[in-house]
Prior knowledge:
By secondary structure, the protein is an alpha+beta fold. It folds into two domains: 1-18 and 162-183; 20-161, Jelly Rolls, CATH 2.60.120. It is 16% helix and 43% strand. It is built from two helices and twelve strands, in the order αββββββββββββα. Strands 1, 2, 3, 4, 5, 6, 7, 8, 9, 10, 11 and 12 form a twelve-stranded antiparallel β-sheet that branches. It is globular and about 70 Å long. 24% of the residues are buried.
Amino acid sequence: MVRRFAFAIFATAVAASTASATITFDNLSVGLVGEPLKLNEQGVLVTFEAVDLAIRDFDFAPFPRTNVLHSGEFTQPITVTLSTGVRAFTFQNYIFGGISPEVDLFTIQAFDIDGNIVDVFGGSQEFITLQAADGEKDIVKLIIDDQGTGFQIDNVELRLVPTPASAALMGLAALAATPRRRR
Length: 183
């Protein structure tokens, strides 16, 4: 009975510790954003900034029709600022060479609260993830740039930092799972 209880607590803690938030741009109007785009997902304020930031209607087979965040035509990077640190930041790149000959080649840097580089990415693939290694501070800022004439991203996923409550649940699970000595 105690072991089942411990497992239930542990499973709840693991689920809480690996929580994520996903941002899509489908509910936003197509057109120029005109100012920083601020979206709140599960308590994390995510700010996207670029000179010519826009929401575009992306209709290119085999992908379903969707709205995407576009960097603009002036090859300026998108700066992403997070109100709370995250363990990982993933996004979908629609122009990766898999569906057309065009390829967006990215240079991406992720920074911690002190301005230190936590992770970097260079190249192109459909899903791009930057993450903080164990023991490093969380990601609070990213600079996403490409070497072309603008790029579009969608399906941004944030892997959230475990809350103190989920860490406490994991400790409680470990305590409950510890075998007791009989006298």
